[in-house]
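Entry for the shared binder. Reason: the reviewer on the internal report wants the predicted structure included alongside the sequence.
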Amino acid sequence: MPDPKTVLRQFLSIVNSHDLSELDTVVADDVTESGPVVVDAPTGGLAAFRTGWTQLLTAFPDLHVNLDSLLAEGDRAAATVTLTATNTGYYRRGFATGKSGTWRGFVLARVTDGRISELDIQTDRLAILQQLGIVGDDDELAAARQSG
């Protein structure tokens, strides 16, 4: 049976390939998510999980997740990642900006019977929203607060 590090690497490889047809080889049918990759995506089970990733890949068709560090203990693997992408589709209640961005994230996966059964993904959503121009930068946010 593959170790958690191997399973998490395989999952990230599938995401980077943009071919989600193989998700069921590394993600359990009853997977649970603590931090869904897309806030508005449905959660609970493999079908909802696939929907969330499809939404993200539609908004960012050139998405690439770089594995920066990876640790494992027991049935869990934890990784820090850097995501890079260009927003050419609908994302976070907004239309395509055409802008590119880079943001960091943390992934914690529990592996049961060789597949991810629990997944918690936390990313710096504020950073990517600012880079896309959806949310103002820190100076703009501070100025708006002071004037309001």
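Summary line for the report: The helical segments are 4-17, 46-59, 125-131, 138-147.
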